[in-house]
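For reproducibility, we list the full input for the 2-acetamido-2-deoxy-beta-D-glucopyranose complex.
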Amino acid sequence: MPFVIMASRAPPLLLLLIVLSLVVLAALLAAAAADASAVAGGGRSSPSTTTFVLAGERTRRKDPLDGLRLYSGGWNISDEHYWASVGFTAAPVFAAAAIWFVVFGVSLFLAGCCFCCCPGSRRRGGGSYSCTALVVSLVLLLAFTAAAAVGCGVLYDGQGRFDGSTAATVEYVAGKSGDAVASLRGFASSMEAAKAAGVGPVSLPASVKGSIDGVVRKMSSAADELAAHTASNAAKIRDALETIRKILIVVAATMLILAVLGLAFSICGMESLVYVLVFLGWILVAATLLLCVTFLLLHNVVGDTCAAMGEWVQRPQARTALDDILPCVDTAAAADALARSKDVTHHLVTVLNGVIANVSNAAADGLPPPLYYNQSGPPVPLLCSPGERCAPGEVDLAAAPRAWRERVCRTTRAAAAAPEVCATVGRLTPAMYAQMVAAASACDALSRYGPVLADMADCAFVRRAFRVVGDEHCPGLGRHSAEVYRGLLAVAVAALASVVLWVAHSRERRRRRDAVELRAAASPYTVHHSHLEEGALLKSPRMMYR
Ligand SMILES: *[C@@H]1O[C@H](CO)[C@@H](O)[C@H](O)[C@H]1NC(C)=O
Ligand SMILES: *[C@@H]1O[C@H](CO)[C@@H](O)[C@H](O)[C@H]1NC(C)=O
Ligand SMILES: *[C@@H]1O[C@H](CO)[C@@H](O)[C@H](O)[C@H]1NC(C)=O
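The corresponding predicted structure, in tokenized form, follows.
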């Protein structure tokens, strides 16, 4: 019975997996924020002094580790009292599973002993049976088999929906994490582009280039780490969900088959087969109840986590248990990240404006040959500083390539080795134009990534993701985990009742059979047992004639 072994071992493993998945789900989002802060390199700013208890109302439960007093610490997965109080909510179902396993197991054992040691006692039915008991047990058996079938249907439907909603949540979170990775990589590559940018021999100062190297290295390793974490965690969660899905489907199918077979065997009076099924049913009911415990816990933890996420989103300032796993309130790091990208942007804009003002727009006749290339015509517009209003005659980074294109000249060379000079009106050679556009677009990208990075560092990004998870995914997760729980409970209870009724109904049937046989043996007119009848007939005349 490989399944039985698997199912009875599954719950603790499953619980572990589920708890892990939840933590991992939160950690996935946390990783993005943590990496961003790490990249920005700032120390964590000291948390504000007010501590807010997340999901305080929901998590006020009896805590067995604290003498059953009400737990008041709120959602805090680092706190064993939280886990104890959540675990305690499943205590009744767990107790039911334990009682069933022990009590029914002992009765099964005793019945087995009786059956083996004193086989004769089985036959001593006393010849009396109750027709009412037979009918009532049959009706109840039919009702509970139907209930088990309905429970299996609910369970199957619930697992499908649960699987859909968890998969969607994981995809959403993994997608957000992917966005974060893309932002980090994009920022790093813009930094590298900015470092390489320059016009002719003019480029960024060496000190700025050095700081870019450091940022790029941190950023790339953070992006790689986050991408690897996301991929491996998402794969683990998908595997766990797939396992849960398979277990639930197998449970639904097995219990349905068990209920139908048990009904059929006990109606047909195949007592030995019924007892085999009773043994199977004993273990399967206990396993289903344990699975039920797992899903009740999962349902409660998911509900708490969703409530905690919702409250955390609304209170960015307070210190909460989520901040322990999400290093968020880190405005210094965010400011530092922004400052570095602004610094690089500023330097690059200065370099470009220097070239435009002192070379392209210069009066051509006063310049020595490398700076003189027969530039003429209207001046090239200068760049305005990013984030500031452009003065007349200036262009912003996004509009610069188009504005500069109008100032490009066609070039010729006097000799093969000679530098290019403008042959037509214009102030930029095509080569200069390409370099300036590359630099401007690196700046433009940096100024666009800056806010994204700040957004990640101060967790605004995670808060938005949590809000979407809370609004769009949590209701489904809660509903569907509850549906699976209810389906499992219905299946377990109906199967439990059915197992007991199989025994009761088979006994009533045997009693009736025994009673019929006994009556047949007692009655002289029965056609069966003709040898008895003959004996009686043969004896009586002799007695009469004597
Ligand atoms: C969460 O629990 C841990 C362990 O008991 C504790 O150190 C921490 O302060 C708790 N966090 C909050 C916000 O209560
Ligand atoms: C042009 O060059 C001079 C020195 O040669 C410098 O002082 C000035 O700042 C430069 N202009 C720009 C816009 O960089
Ligand atoms: C320099 O540019 C002018 C147009 O402004 C053009 O007529 C002239 O031929 C160019 N000189 C050379 C050497 O190409």
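The pocket of 2-acetamido-2-deoxy-beta-D-glucopyranose (ligand 2) is lined by residues 353-354, 357-358 (CB under 6 Å). The chain has two domains: 55-180+248-329+460-522, 334-457. Both points were considered when choosing residues for closer inspection.
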